[in-house]
Amino acid sequence: MHKFLSLTRVTLKNSMGMLSDGNSKKLTTILLYGFLGICMLPLMFALYFFVDTMLTNFHFLDQDATILALTFYICCFVTFFFAIFLVPSIFFFSNDGETLLALPLKPEVILGSKFITVLIYEYSFVFMVLLPSVAAIIKHGDLGIVSILAILLVFLLLPIYPLVLSSIISLLVMCFVPFFKNRDRFNLISSGCTIVLALGFAIYVNSASFTQSNPQELMELLLSGNNSLIAVLGYLFPNAIFAAKAIVENDILQLIFFLLISFVSLLLCLLLAKAIYFKGLIGFSETNSNRKKLSHQELGKAAHQKNRIITYTKKELKLLFRTPAYMMNCVATTFIVPILMLLIPLVQGVTIDASLLPQEIMAMMNDYWYYFLIGGIVIGLFIGNMGLVSSTSISREGTNLMFMKYIPMPLKDQLFAKVLSGIFLAVITDILTIVLFGFLFPVFPLPMLILTLAASLVSTVLANYIGIYLDLSHPKLVWEQEATAVKNSISGIIAMFGGWGCAALVGIAAYMLPNEIIKYASIALLIAMLILSCILHHKMDSFAFKQFKKY
């Protein structure tokens, strides 16, 4: 136990130290995190409004626990999804692996300390979902002693079970795919397998629970009360169901089940780590290089001068795709989130047939074109910095940042190419999201979908420019592994959550304002975004020149 506590303390200290960019003063860092908290407030308010409304509507049907379980499910899924990317990086890809292997430490002790580190990271996402949800249930419910105790335990233990699931998947994949001698290739393929297995399992389990219920059965469950509708959530995260019932029903037995799931799953994970963790960890320092001899024709073709901005953009994209840490955290995240959001309804058969809607409703969609404009702005703000490409483009340079000053290419062109790489990936995600959405719900007219896409492009461009400005202001240039430059970049975190917060604000405003105001406000907002993007592009060179003097 002493070794475990000592190693956990050191691991947490190192991890918390990685959150600093190495240049900013302590007060500046605190202010940045305060600003990040403010960015989260619109998202938390939107979630509180959603849970409060649902509890109000479903209370008379005695389905309160179902609504709370749904929010806990969301919380568990967020933990599970982010852990899929975070667990391999901290458990296997960190540079302390060889050092820890040489120490007299048991595998379960090493993995347990790293597990605590990942759990601390996950709390930031978990609390953002739990706080508004629990606040809404406190407003609507008369809670007893067991409910209050359950709320406290849920805040501490809810992320353990989904984190254990992702840890077990990572342990199995890393242990039984040991035949790659190239470290980068091993990391990339192992992480890819982890994501495919995890998402496939989540889609299968959730779709199975819904496809077994027809609308009549769902209506019977809804009207029967006693939180019977909770059965449609499936049992991928049973801890969420038991936690919700313990809070709403003030049931000590449900709380015991919740505690058993959390602790037993953690124990199984540690036992599995004891058996196979070292097998997966050994050999990660190996790497190979591929030397290719170029012919005279190939050399001439490679040395032919091309457009420098396009060439630099290609270089940035190749770096993102070839580096496993960037591929998993920047590229994969950008594509997987919208696909997952739309693939689950597709698997479950949740679609809308346009022929079933009256023609009057179809015609009204063209009259409310400004809502599609708002929808596009929200999509662009949400997706723009979700992949952390532009908002970590300076941080990813690390100690090589000075080469940006020396190469024969204007700094403005280099920065523009970095922004273009972020815009390119985000725009592909915008297109993919809207196309898949139009395929699943073909009731929306094609011109309206095109309008949505155009608005999303404008907000995506602005989001990426803001992202690189944030990274120019506070880059994280001191890091030991590539994943740290992305995951522990305060500029990237602020850009992502700031974009989500702005998207939530726009959505809330569109819900509350009258139609006439929304019509003109949507146009004004789009024009303002265009103008601001042009200003940021024009001023980027001078701003970067001032910032580079500080590095």
Automatic annotation (TrEMBL):
Membrane as UniProt keyword: yes
Keyword Membrane in record: yes
TM segment ranges: 30-51, 72-95, 115-138, 150-180, 186-206, 218-237, 252-273, 325-348, 368-394, 415-440, 446-470, 490-511, 517-536
Q: Which UniProt keywords apply?
A: Membrane, Transmembrane, Transmembrane helix
InterPro entries found in the cross-reference section:
ABC_tran_2 (IPR031599)
Superkingdom in the source lineage: Bacteria
Which protein are we looking at?
Answer: Uncharacterized protein
**What species does this protein belong to?**
Amedibacillus dolichus CAG:375
